Every structure is written in structure tokens, then in C-alpha cells.
Amino acid sequence: MSNKLHQSMAQDIAFDGSPAKIFTLTNSNGMSVSFMDIGATWLSCCVDLGDTTREVLLGVATMKQHQQQQAYLGATVGRYANRIESGRFVINGEIHQVLTNQAGNCLHGGPDSFTHRRWLVEGVVEESREQTIVFTLESPDGDQGFPGKVNASVSYTLTNKNEVIIAYSATIDKACPINLTNHAYFNLLGADSQSDCLDHSLTMNASQYLPSDASGIPVGELKEVQGTSFDFMQLKKLKQDFMADHDQQLAAGYDHSFLLETECHLGHATAASVTSPDGKLRLELQTTKPAIQLYTGNYLAGCPNREGGEYVNHAGFALETQFLPDSPNHPEWQQPSCIVQPEQTYKHQTTYRFLVV
User: Fold this and answer.
1) 209 is in an annotated binding site
2) Average pLDDT taken over every residue of the chain
3) Residues involved in catalysis
């Protein structure tokens, strides 16, 4: 898969007239993961099941397809992942207006966000038989309307425990909200299996979720998941309570943030766990972020896939580790502040562990 991907992704030039640079990491278990410098994007994730290798990450095969898709497949998202209502927030009494790109709101950093940039490649480092690739990006003061110059980095490490560790770091010279995440979509039965993700079984270590309107903007306060379709404290299939209430119907499925239990982002507990429908593969997620956006691919129809066809709605699920949406406008929420000060360094980490059962 990796050699074929390297060739196909380099056939077309990217937005800046040069081909993408593709990198593949492998471990001792036969697992391989591929990335490119456009959007610091996670392109492929192949897990060795013993008798077969399974591609579990939704993706494309060519740069032309990548430029067509609007689903943020595997991309590094920033400056601010998820939504900021009306693209407006206040810091130290000063109103900031950033560019909007979805229903009058700012989604995933704006129309020309980190997802659409060519990141610099710092190189591949091998240490203790673990491989790491590091991407960096400089975002100037006023980029998409956000204050301050940001120097951001994202590193991907593949371990021999079948872990993909994504580490984010950023510094800034003016106070600004920063919320970096990866927008990977998974289907543990196989990204091109033609099966939807709704037969996957999920547990989420979160007792509260955030209701939102049809545009994904939070409405009201956090709600307890107990007694609702958003209760994943015990293992259940995504389809069990799918579209069971008004909150889901507004979003055409799950597209909501869950506030994780404090023990998760302190590093003492698994935040989420997903098991494939055939029971052969489990994904465990750990993160230092306070929340996860669960998205069941409600609008994936028409998105190009690697096989030259198109994905259908619910072809994959995303677990985006982040601050709650519109956090700059909700300092009252019980989570660390998303506003990074010049004297601070933004540092967060998310680990995806793939366990062959």
C-alpha cells in the first residue's frame, strides 16, 4: 500500500505547484502509517492482523482527490478545531473577528486553515526502534483574523505497541485561542469495506455531552449522558440509539462533543475504546485534551475514496480530541482555558492504540 500511495499521491501537483512529500513509518508488527506535508495529513493506517493487513483510515489516493474532498480526511486542524460562533471572541476586552466558512461561523480555523497549508518536514527520527516524523508551520499575526504569530508543530510517532502518538506544540506572541486536532476517520472493518461504521461498539469515558444547534454551535449547558442516546459509559453499538432524539436529528447523527472525566486528560484513564464489528480489532484512545467530538460521518456521501469511487454517509467515525466547541466564548465551562498566552507553550498529546484481538 505505501509504495503505491507514494506514487499515486505524487502524480499531481499540490496547490503551490509542487507535489506532496509522502512519508511512511513501519513497526516490528508489520503496521505501517503514512503522512504527507500538505495539511500534515495522516493518509493511511494499515494494521497487520496476522492473516491479512487491514487499512482502517479513510483516505484518498491522489492529490486531485485530496483537493476535491471537504471532509478534512486525516488532516491537522487549526488554529481552532471545531466551531467559533460568528467567528467572534473577546480577549482582554478586545473583540476579535476571524473569517467564517460555515453557516456564518468559523469552522476548523477558517477557509484557509492549517489543513490547507504545506508544513515543513523536520525529518524522520528513529529512537528505541520507534519512528517519529515532525512537521512545523508558522502562522503569521492576523492569519484568518486570529491574533499573534504562531509557531506550531505536530509529531507522529509509531511505536511497537501499535500506537500512533500525535503530539502538538505551539507558541505565540499574542494571546489567542489554540485548539489543534487530527480529523482522522476510522473504519476498523476496513476503510474500503463498503460497510458503515454504525456496527462498531464504543465506550466513552464521559458523563456529559454538549447539545448543539443545526450548525454545530453549542446551545445551553452541558447535559448528563445518563438516560440519553449519548450514554457510552457502557459498551454499545453506535447504531443502538442512532438518531433516537432531537439533538441527533439536528446533526443527522452523532456530531457532538463529550466532556471527558478528569482522570482521562490527566493521563490516568482511557478516554474511548472502539471495537470492530467482527471483533478482531480494538482502538483505544488516550488524550490530554478535555473533550472528544464524536462524528459518525453524517455528510461523507460524495467524498472520493482510494478505489476511485465515493464514500457514503457513515463510512467512518471520527474521535476528534479537543477543547469544547466555541470555548473562547464560554470561560465558565469546567475545562482548562483554550487561550494561550505569550509566556505559555501549548502542548497536548493523543494516542491511538490498535489492539489485534
Assistant:
1) no
2) 96
3) 183, 320
